[in-house]
Amino acid sequence: MIEVKDLHVTFGTNHVVRGVDMTVSEGECFGLVGESGCGKSTVLGAIAGRVKRWQGSISAAEADLRPERRTLAQLRLQQMVFQDPFGSLHPRHTIGRALSEPLEIHGIPDREARIEQALDRVGLPRRFRFRYPHQLSGGQRQRVAIARALILEPKVLLLDEPTSALDVSIQAEILNLLKDLRQQQGLTYVLVSHDMAVVTHLSDRIAVMQDGTFVEVAPRAAMISGDLAHPYTRMLREGSLGYRPTEKEAL
Amino acid sequence: MAHEPLLSVRNLTVEFPSLHRIRPAVSSVSFDLGREKVGIIGESGSGKSTCGRAIMRLHPGRTRITADRMAFMGQDLLTLPERQMRAIRGHRIAMILQDPKYSLNPVMTVGEQIAETVILHERLPRRAARIRAMEMLEKVHIRDPERVMRLYPHEVSGGMGQRVMISMMLIAKPALIIADEPTSALDVSVRQQVLAILDELVTGSDMGLLFISHDLNLVRSFCDRVLIMYAGRVVEEIAAADLDRAQHPYTRGLLEALPSLTQPKDRLAVLQRDPAWGA
C-alpha cells in the first residue's frame, strides 16, 4: 500500500530523515517509535504530503508521489490524525462544519448523510454536529478528529501520537476504536508514538527510529518477548516497562 | 519506623471558590510520609498536583485550604506565618516541576539559579555558593559543570534542564521533595538517568519523596507506596509491589485499561466510572 525508498528530509542544515525504507502492505498496521527529534513525525508528514521537500521515492496505492504537488485523489488516499485534539480542531467551527470541510474541498456530495455516518462510526451521538470543540471532552474531540480523517474514506490512516494527550482510561477507548475501525474497514495504519506499549498494542510490525534512520524493524511478537537485535530497541523497551534501579551503573 | 512521620496530612480539603459555587478539588485526603518514596497516581483533574501545591501553600490567596492536620516535622503548615513558610519553601521542602523549559528562569544562568537557593537560605557568600552549585551539578552527573554553570536554560537539553532543576532543589538539602511529574517531558533514555539520580540522592540523604505522576508503570517500579486519587479523593493506598492485588475498582480499571508490553491483550478494558467513588 505504501512504499518508501531512501527517504531523506532536510530542514535548512538539519538532516532530519536520513535514508528511510519502509513497505506497508494493505490492512497492516505499521508502528514507528522513537524519542523526540528522531524524525518519526517527519516521515509521517512526508507520506501525508505535509512535508513538501524530500528526496527519495514514496508511492501510495501503486502511484508514485511527487514531493511538491499532489492531486486531490492522491491526498484523499491517506488522512491524518494528530496528537492534540485541543489544537487540531478549529475552536470556532462546529463539529459539523469541521467534518464537512474536507467534503467541500474534495467536492463530495451527500454531505449531511456522510457527516451523520462518520459520527456513528466513531461512536458519537449525531446531535454532536451542532456542538463546538470546547463543549467536548478530550476523548470525544479525538473521536471527532478520527471521524474527520475517515469521512473522505481513505485507504490509509496516518496516526501521529493519537493518544498521547489523553488519560489512560480514555486512551483505552480510542485504541479500541482504532482497532475496530481497522478491522471493519480494512484500513492500513501508520502509527507514530513514543509509547512502546501503545505501538505494540496496535501494530503488526514496529520500526524503531534513531537520528533519522531505522535501527530495527521488529515484528510484534519480538517486541513482546523482548527478542530484539538492536541495543537501542532493548533500551527503549526496558524503559517503557518502568524504572530499573540497576541501570545506575550505566551512568 | 518508630519516629514521627516527616509529613502528616489529615482530611486535607482544597476548594477553589468561583462565582457560582465552591468546588473541592481535593477532599478529605489523609496520608503520612516518612523517609520513603510515596507516589500519587491519578488522571488529569484528580487533584494530585493540587495536593502537592497545597502542602507548599502555593495556591492563590482565595483558595480555601482546610485540614485537621498538615504537619511537617512538627510544624503546622496551615497556620505558619508566610515569613516562616518562605524559610521552609525551597529549604526544607523542595518541589521539582514537570518541564524545565518553563520552570527555569530564562534570563539567569544555570549556575546563578542554583546558587540563589543557598545564598537565600543559608546566607552563603557568592563564591562559596558557586562552589556548592558546582558540586551539586557533579552530583547529578553533569559532565563539565564549569561550562554548564555559565549556560542559559535555552542552551541546555530537556534532560540536562531537569537535572539542573533537581540540583537546584537538592542543594539546600531539603527533608522532603515534592516531584510533580518530574520526568513526563523527558524521553525514555533520559528518564531512566534522571530517576536514577533522584533515587540515589533521596535514598542516600535520607529524604522523603512525594512523587506525583500519571504513569502507573513508572510509579509502581520507582516508589515504595502508592496513593491512587480519583475526583479529589484517595480511593486506595497500597504498597507499590502489591499494586497487582489492588482492591478498588478504579485502580483495577486503570491497570486493565493500560496496554501492556509483557501481557498483551486483544482489547483493552474500558473503565466504567462509578459516581460513588468520588462521593
Features:
heterodimer; A: 251 residues; Rossmann fold; four-stranded antiparallel β-sheet; 36% helix; globular; disordered C terminus; B: 279 residues; alpha/beta; six-stranded mixed β-sheet; five-stranded antiparallel β-sheet; 10 helices; 11 strands; 35% helix; 23% strand
Describe the structure concisely:
The complex is a heterodimer of chains A (251) and B (279). With 251 residues, chain A is of the alpha/beta class.
Fraction of residues in H or I helices of chain B:
25-40%
CATH superfamily of one domain in chain B: P-loop containing nucleotide triphosphate hydrolases
| CATH architectural designation of one domain in chain B | 3-Layer(aba) Sandwich
Tell me the overall shape of chain B: globular
Form type of chain A = globular
SS element count, helices of chain B: 10
The main sheet of chain B comes to: 6 strands, mixed
CATH classification class of chain A? Alpha Beta
Using the coordinates above, name the CATH class of one domain in chain B: Alpha Beta
Structural class of chain A: alpha/beta
Helical segment tally of chain A? 9
CATH topology group of one domain in chain B: Rossmann fold
